[in-house]
Amino acid sequence: MIAIPHPIRRMIEDQHVFLSYMLDDYPRLLDEWITKQEKEVEDIAKSVAEGDDEVYYSVYSNEIQRIEHCSYEAMLIMVYSYYESTLFRLAKEKDVDSPRPSKIAEKIGANVDNELLQISNFLYNTVRPLRNELCHNNSGTLFEESSQEEQANIRNLTQNNVISIDNERITIIDRGFIKQTLDDEYKLLLKLADICGYKTSFIGKK
């Protein structure tokens, strides 16, 4: 028997596998990149200083700032993009104006259960504004353009040690938060795929 998933369902599953692998391997890749950058900064400082320790430490301190904030922010952006782009694809396929899970389900004559509705609300009202701020290079727009509810949700993440905020600059400190976000997105997208009839077909005998 051959299992043939619907193309959109396969896309949901394959991208989840890929992002899960990337997230698991990211700490190693990040460490390797930082080590390489630190060596490059050291070489630049030595070249400029020409033996002058004061100049060396000044140049090194200035150059090293470029890697100080490299962490998991890029992975969260990628993870939310997976979710958002898939919702837009589902909405387009079903001719739905709003790419929200509840609206897509309603178009099919179905409902999203309470657990998945909570996931949807969390993604939209917490992860989305967080992603938007990170995409704008931590410019502080989160606290100018987001609703009070969204700002409160973000600050709750700081209280739970998921992120830190320093001078309105956000740093993700809990990689598990990104993994949980990805898995929640996957659960919700698979349910929407079921609702839309995007299931796996089986051909042949058992």
Briefly characterize the structure.
The protein is mostly helical and 206 residues long. The protein has helices at residues 7-49, 53-64, 73-93, 101-108, 114-135, 142-145, 148-159, 175-195; strands at 2-5, 163-166, 169-172, 200-203.
What is the secondary structure topology, with strand pairs?
Layout: E1 2-5, H1 7-49, H2 53-64, H3 73-93, H4 101-108, H5 114-135, H6 142-145, H7 148-159, E2 163-166, E3 169-172, H8 175-195, E4 200-203
Antiparallel strand pairs: 1-4, 2-3
Largest sheet: 2 strands, antiparallel
Shape, per Cα inertia axes: elongated
The oligomeric status of these chains comes to single chain
Main-sheet strand order equals 1-4
H and E order: EHHHHHHHEEHE
Radius of gyration: 22 Å
Number of strands: 4
Mean residue pLDDT: 85
Tell me the helix content. Answer: 55-70%
Q: Give the structural class.
A: mainly alpha
Number of helical elements:
8
Unreliable stretches covering 5 or more consecutive residues: none
Strand content: 5-15%
How widely separated are the two ends? 5 Å
Can you walk through the features of this model?
Strand 2 (163-166) and strand 3 (169-172) form a beta hairpin. Helix content is 69%, strand content 8%. It has a two-stranded antiparallel sheet. Helix 3 packs across helix 5, helix 3 (73-93) runs parallel beside helix 8 (175-195) and helix 5 (114-135) crosses helix 8. The model has no long low-confidence stretch (mean pLDDT 85). The protein has 206 residues and is mostly helical. The chain is elongated.
